[in-house]
Amino acid sequence: MTDPLKAFMQANALTAPAFAPDSRYHGLDTAQWTRPDGELVSYVRRRFIPPPENFATLHTHRVAEGDRPDNLAATYLGDPQQYWRLCDGNGVMRADELIETLGRRLRITLPEGVPGGTDV
């Protein structure tokens, strides 16, 4: 029996846009690799974290005990799944890096390249 997901991927069904506009992967290219056994594997090309200076600061948040990236994204951005925007605005790869240090000042930013903010 054929795996439906594998069949979907092999049918080259991942064509742009493969990800929703609010996804951190939106706009990234997909590629394919052929394994030594001949199986075709589709994947998303690597995403690089944009430089923090590409983001205008709206607010800052001082990390407190119990903070979570998803809750901060819900509070400041209106969507817990947008935690990755906090990561980008603060130049970190893993969301947990945002809250590792109590007292750290997190930048709450506009999307990349959107001018404005207070740059506090």
Structure notes:
By secondary structure, the chain is of the alpha+beta class. It has two domains: 4-44, no CATH class; 52-109, LysM domain (Membrane-bound Lytic Murein Transglycosylase D, Chain A, Roll). It is 19% helix and 18% strand. It has three helices and four strands, in the order αβββααβ. The protein has a two-stranded antiparallel ribbon. The protein has a two-stranded antiparallel sheet with strand order 3-4. β1 (30-34) and β2 (40-44) form a beta hairpin. The mean pLDDT is 87.
SSE blueprint and pairings:
Layout: H1 4-10, E1 30-34, E2 40-44, E3 57-62, H2 69-77, H3 83-89, E4 105-109
Antiparallel strand pairs: 1-2, 3-4
List its traits.
2 domains; 4 strands; Membrane-bound Lytic Murein Transglycosylase D, Chain A; two-stranded antiparallel ribbon; 3 helices; alpha+beta; 18% strand; 120 residues; two-stranded antiparallel sheet; single chain
